[in-house]
Write the structure tokens for this entry.
Amino acid sequence: MGQNITKKYPIKSLNSQKQKKKNSRLLKSSSYCFACGENNPFGLKLKILGDENGVWTTFKVTQYYEGFKDITHGGIIATILDEMIAWACRKRNLDVLTAELVVGYKKKLAIGETIQATGKVVKEHNRLIIGESLIKDSKGQIIATGYAKMLLV
């Protein structure tokens, strides 16, 4: 799981007019989404880029997301992994909700670290979509992996 997800994807902005029109039938995004909403004062404000092959983002973890001292809360890591898979589905015009998320924590993520997260769809079967995601630190070491079953809505 997650081994081939690290390849670089062609990057296209999610904010292009063509993409906005293409995604107009999807679930309406909220500017207050905890993960990607621009207006949520407590949110991560992830800026996710990508195309139908996968998505990626970078993010600097601040002390607002601390669990134990100087360590990122595991729930924040899980949120990022889930969001990457959801947006990978969205880039394929798949309107989904998370049915199951499995997180593999590999090492601690220090506060102040800048991470790169990636996500992709690996299988589509009727209403079930399978996705994988990955978070790496600035040294390229894997922090966590995600595997999710998403349901079309």
In short: The first helix runs from residue 17 to 22.
